[in-house]
Structure formats: C-alpha cells, structure tokens
Design goal:
By secondary structure, the chain is an all-alpha fold. It has a single domain, classed as MetI-like fold (Orthogonal Bundle), CATH 1.10.3720. The chain is built from 12 helices and no strands. Helix 4 packs across helix 11 and helix 11 runs antiparallel to helix 12. It is globular and about 70 Å long. The model has no long low-confidence stretch (mean pLDDT 82).
Amino acid sequence: MRSPSTAPFIERLSSRGSRVAAFVILAVLVAPMLVIVPLSVTSGTLLIYPIPGLSGRWYEEFFTDALWVDATWNSIVIAIPTTALATALGTSAALGLNRLRSRLAPAITVFLITPIIVPIIIYGVAAFYYFSRIGISGTYLGLVVGHTVLAIPFVVVTVNASLKNFDPNLLRAALVLGATPRQAFTRVTFPMIFPGVLSGGLFAFVTSFDELILTLFVSSPEQRTLPRQLWSGVQETINPTITAAAVVLMMVSILVMLLAEWIRRRSSKMQGKP
C-alpha cells in the first residue's frame, strides 16, 4: 500500500513518464516527414544530404508549372463539394442517430464509419467496378461521390461528440415557448453543435485533399489531383519539386488540424469546460 507521502511523488512520476512517452512517439511519427523540408529548399537537383545550398526554385516551379498548378486546382475543386456534401449528410446522420432510441443505433453507427475501417484499396476496387457500371468512373462526379463516402464518417464522429454535450431540455424549452421545429433547430440546436459541424467539415476537406488510393482507381488523366501528381512524380521523374509539393500538402493538413483544435478549445471554453 502506498504511504501518503509517496503517493504524490508516484503520481507526478507517472505523469512525467506519460508525457515523455507521448513526446517520443510523436517524434518518431513526425521526424520522417520533417526530412523532406530541407530537401524542398535545396539548390541541387538530387534528393541527397547534405544539401549543396538553399534555393526557392522548387517552390517557384511548383506554383508556376502547369502540371502542378492544375493538379492543385483539381484537388481544391473536388474537395469543396466533397466537404459540403459530407458535412450536410454526416450532420444529418449524426442528428438522426442521436434521436434514435433503438438497439440498432450502435450497429448503424458502425455501418456509417465503415469506410474508415475497411482497407482503402478494397474500397477503391469496389468503387471502380460500381462507378464503371453506372457511368461515373473517370469523372469529377465520381471522385466527389467517392471522396464524400470517405469523409462522412469524420463528420458523423465529430458532430456526435458535440451532441453528447447538448442538453435536450433547451430544445424542449424552445418548442414550449412557441418555436417551430425549424426555428428550434436553427436557433438552438445548430449554434450549439456548430463547432463540431465545422470541425467535421475541416476533416472532410483534408480527407478529400489528401486522398490518393481511391483517386488512382476512379479518376482519369483529366482529374489528376495533387496527391496523384505526387505519386506520378515519384514514379517517373524524381526531382525536388515533389518535396516542395509534399511540404505544401503537409502544411495545408497541419493548418486545418490546428484550426479544428482551436475551434474545439474555443467551444470548450465557451461551455465552461477545461
């Protein structure tokens, strides 16, 4: 049994050990990605260390070369409608599940998040055959539909988390005071869950913007996205431009994740939570 004098020391030691372990794991995960940052500003033409000098020529090529510019634009064009559809459908699904009083609710939830459980290559093969049958393979519509299916689970999870903290008595009070169901939703429910909806939308955008495997299966050369252009660059002509593109892609993902975390913290602060 712990003595009262040693208990605080053991708790502090355990807390510090957990932090050190988390830092080590984070470093192991992040370090390989940081390797490409110096390579993106090398003055040479080979991906080698030590770099011969510093230059911004590869970022200039990324932002001026037609292949990279078109690929980035395609990613944005596909990600925007994907985000809108996934956010709308995922939010509706989360609201429906929250109001569903049935033993099937957990099973339905698992079904909705299946796209992030099943290996992406299996989904890619299935999407290729199905989209080919209905005539949308190799089109922007097919990519948007495919990316939306992958993005919906993230919206469902984040909105569901927001609904866990929602007090249904507020909705009942609004209805008792004469609000219509639509007014109660737009003025009471939606403002309360908006941080979760916005976070889910950000995750949906990143999911679409970073997606490669599904894109390889269902896109045509006209829908070459940034991840696919990166893949082609690695396979065909390796030069530091791909590292500049990888850094841009990584920074977009990091900025979106930081924004989502800021929204979460701000929402918790407004609700009086630590």
